[in-house]
Every structure is written in C-alpha cells, then in structure tokens.
Fold Hydroxyproline O-arabinosyltransferase-like domain-containing protein.
Amino acid sequence: MGFRGKYFFPILMTLSLFLIIRYNYIVSGDPPLRQDLPGRQSSRDDVISSVKTPSKRTKRLFHTAVTATDSVYSTWQCRIMYYWYNRFKDEPGSDMGGYTRILHSGRPDGLMDEIPTFVAEPLPSGVDQGYVVLNRPWAFVQWLQQAHIEEDYILMAEPDHIIVKPIPNLARGNLGAAFPFFYIEPKKYESVLRKFFPKQNGPISRIDPIGNSPVIVSKNALKKIAPTWMNVSLAMKNDPQTDKAFGWVLEMYAYAVSSALHGISNSLHKDFMIQPPWDTETKKTYIIHYTYGCDFDMKGNTMYGKIGEWRFDKRSYGDKPPPRNLTLPPQGVPESVVTLVTMINEATANIPNWES
C-alpha cells in the first residue's frame, strides 16, 4: 500500500528557498554540454572496472528508491523496473532490501497498491522552469524526513533502469558507490562550479563525475546531502550561465557538488550500469539504462541519427505502454539490446493488466 507523508510544505519550501546557496558569479566562456549521443566512455584512474563480491559476505541491505511522476510514460517504466527488482531481490549475492517509488506528482495514482509508494509534493508551480528533474531532490528531502527506512544504505535508481542480476552493496561506510558518466566533467567546468564549490572546499577533483543515479550511499550521508542537493539545483537553474553550461544534466552536477560539499566521496564502478546501444554486453553489469534509442537496419547495422528499420526507443511510448511481445532485433544487433528487449518482454508478459 502507498502512504502519504505529513509535513508543513509551505514552511519547508520557504526555508529551502531562503537556504539557496549564494555565490559570487564568475563570468565564463565555456560552451554548453553536447546534447548528442555519446561515443565510448572515457576512463579515470580510480574507476573500478569490475566488482568482485567476497565469498563470505555479511548482509548490508540497501533500500532502492526511484523517483517518478504519474504520467503513462513514467508508470510503465516503473512497473518493469519493479518486476525485475522482485525477481532478483532474494537471489544469492543480493543486498537489496526494501523498495519505494517516490511519486512527486503530489497525489496518489493507480500504482499505489502495486508498488510501495511515497507521495511527495512537487515544487511550487513555475519553480522548476519546465525542468521537471528539479523535483527529484525536493522529493528525496521529503521522503528522508518523513518515511521510516529500515536499511542503512540507499540505492537511488530511475524508472528506466532494468536490474540484470542481484546487486550487492558496493558502498563502504561513508564511501558511496556510483557510476561514472563521461560527460560529467568537473575540471572542464571549474569556473562555473566554483560558484557552488568555493576554493576553500578543496580541489575541483573532489567533485566526482557522477549524478545521483545510480548511487548507493549511506542513509545518514544522504540525509545531509539531499537538502544541499535541492538548494544547489535551484541555485544552478536560476543562474543563466550555469543553466546554459549544464542543460539537461544540471541536476546531476548539483548532486555531485553537494556530495563533495559534505565530504562524501564515491568509488566509481563503470560496470554498475550499461547504456545500449553504445555498451554492447551485459555480462558484467548490474543495470541496463535504456535512455538512448536503439535503431538498426535488418542486417543488424546501427542507423545513427535515423529511425531504424528495427527500433526500440522508450520515447515511442509516451502516451501508452509498449505492447507485449515486442519484436526481437535482427541478427547482428549487440547482445545488450537483445537482452533489453527480451527482459521487457518477460516483464510485460507477467505484469497483470499490462495494456489496460
């Protein structure tokens, strides 16, 4: 069953807006981040290429938290994500504990009895300036303040994540575990980031190349980070130079900065997640993130920048869920894409009332 938090929203919101971090703005000529699709990921010396699970392990459970809206687009992704969470939760090697969909639409929806849900209030009208992701940190603030969370760690995930195998707790103490994004480049944007991470906080390298998801972090650390993450996100969005520089990844930079401001570092696991079609194999990963469109001709060749003869793109299903039994890709398509479609088909075949 879902539940609705009780809190004094106007008071908290007023306080949060008063707490927005103010910095001396630095004029920068840095160009905005590229919005095109990525090539291969760059690497850092401290990136862990594979995760080794000890043979003798003590359970250190983490709670999986997914922020979402009540749109059809978000809802069908959440149902698939939750299906695969349940499939692997109790398998050997798993440290997966409870699960919460943090619904920041401000009202209950039709999934309250299917997926454990916390209803959070969205930001006041107009505050997000059309950038709906700004509601994510504010929703986490509400959830962390009001919900009873038994686990000592939290995995922040997203609706378009598919869990491929049991996930162990990759975090250690106050050290979080995160996926490194090649397009999060703190050094490149140092002049912009110094507005929010002043020099007295240390070298810019203390800001990890991460977003908030996927990240496993201690609950106590996240309780400190979340209000700062919210305020830094709002401050970045309200600064035209920063907004222009970071665009659609602004909230990701805000989390990375906030984590660093609180002295929370992260071990970086490049095998934590893959993103088809650019990543081609699933054998080492824990999560498939299907954020990019997969377009191929019938010979299995990628059709860059074109609608494929065969395609899967989540954006094709904005107002209705994908049908059951999607056509599998042709021979020659990367294994990651085949696995993605196969796992979506299994989930939709077993979720009741899928297309209703």
About this structure: The mean pLDDT is 87. DSSP finds eight helices and 14 strands in the chain. Helices lie at 9-18, 72-88, 135-146, 190-193, 219-237, 240-246, 250-261, 335-350.
